[in-house]
Write a structure and sequence with these properties.
By secondary structure, this protein is α+β, with helices and mostly antiparallel strands. The protein contains 3 helices and 5 strands. α2 packs across α3. The longest helix is centred in the middle third of the chain and has 22 residues. The radius of gyration is 14 Å and the shape is globular.
Length: about 140
Amino acid sequence: MPAAWSLHQQLTQDTIDIGDLPLCRVLVIKDANYPWLLLVPRREGAVEVIDLDEVSQAQLMTEVSRVARALKEITKCDKLNIAALGNVVPQLHVHIIARRRNDAAWPRPVWGVVPPLAHDAAEVQNFISAIRRKIWLG
């Protein structure tokens, strides 16, 4: 991992750190409306998936699958939304969002539908602990 890598300021502000997989930092978005995780490859200058070499691209997909599977098992959601948009934050990051047919935005995308809802401290810590166990972070 290059020493120059750092998490984009907006992502630092909008997330809670869960830990690091071999390639990605795993984060929870600060919005209790949805179980919403973020994977950020720790590669300086990566904006698009194609900015990663092929080995790192394969590792990213492995980590996305691991985290998505864990999120689905924990939340029992109806659908997973997985996307690498980056229109506002240029640093490569992948959203993994557990969706339910009765959530605040269903069936629309989650962005801008309702204001972010603060997490209950105990609930988010329980969620983080469950995710960490499922993705082998502790």
